[in-house]
Specification:
225 residues, four-stranded mixed β-sheet, 18% strand
Length: 225
């Protein structure tokens, strides 16, 4: 994976990173002027959900978007918490009306990010974050050019391969498909403003929180630095 000029923030494990972190205090996300949307993406197995989950624990004041989907709820899923469950007709109307920041269809089910709640949170000065795949991140960049795109990276390709193959519950063809998709997504890292290495979930979440708060002024790719 080549360095393309965007900032790379490494996690724990001997890599360079911020020298120190103060323990976050819930509710300390900055308010006031309009905030900037942060989009977190990365390949399967890189730990996106774990890092974002820890970020939610560190600062519940951050707005986390809840997607809409046309698939039925799975056991234990709560409408409005895990997803907003809607039918295909409603989804199509939202797409036609421009009410989704991004949307995609996977295995016959549709998913999308409602625009209005994100816009409202940003207007209130509340930091907002989306956890979506590469295709969705590209759509958000087109719809909201000032969004900050963060690519969550594995410490190494070998470690990612180990995470994806270590489960031992999938057919070899499925594993190979996941690896090919992961390679394609990592090849797009140069499209992102910041690359954050997830060597440790807690450390990666704290660095992401620092980024949202603006405690560490990173020279991002689109700044011309």
């Amino acid at each position: 994976m080549s360095d393309t000029g965007s900032d790379r923030v490494t996690g724990a494990g001997g890599h360079a990173g911020p020298a120190s972190h103060r323990e976050p205090v819930p509710g300390q996300a900055r308010r006031g002027a309009r905030s900037r949307l942060t989009v977190v993406s990365g390949p399967s197995g890189v730990g996106k959900s774990s890092v974002v989950g820890e970020l939610r624990r560190l600062d519940p004041d951050i707005y986390f978007s809840v997607s809409v989907t046309t698939r039925p709820p799975r056991p234990g899923e709560v409408d409005g918490a895990h997803y907003h469950f809607i039918d295909r007709a409603v989804f199509d109307k939202m797409v036609a009306a421009g009410e989704l920041l991004e949307h995609a269809e996977f295995t016959g089910n549709c998913y999308g990010t409602p625009r209005e709640p994100v816009e409202r949170a940003l207007a209130e000065g509340r930091p907002a974050i989306l956890e979506i795949e590469l295709q969705g991140a590209r759509q958000v960049r087109a719809a909201m050019p000032d969004a900050r795109l963060v690519m969550l990276m594995p410490p190494s390709w070998e470690e990612l391969v180990g995470r994806l193959t270590g489960r031992g519950t999938e057919e070899q063809a499925a594993v190979e498909a996941r690896l090919a998709e992961a390679e394609r997504e990592l090849a797009a890292a140069g499209e992102f403003d910041v690359r954050l290495v997830n060597a440790d979930v807690g450390e990666a979440a704290r660095q992401l929180l620092d980024l949202l708060r603006g405690d560490h002024r990173l020279h991002e790719q689109n700044s011309g630095a």
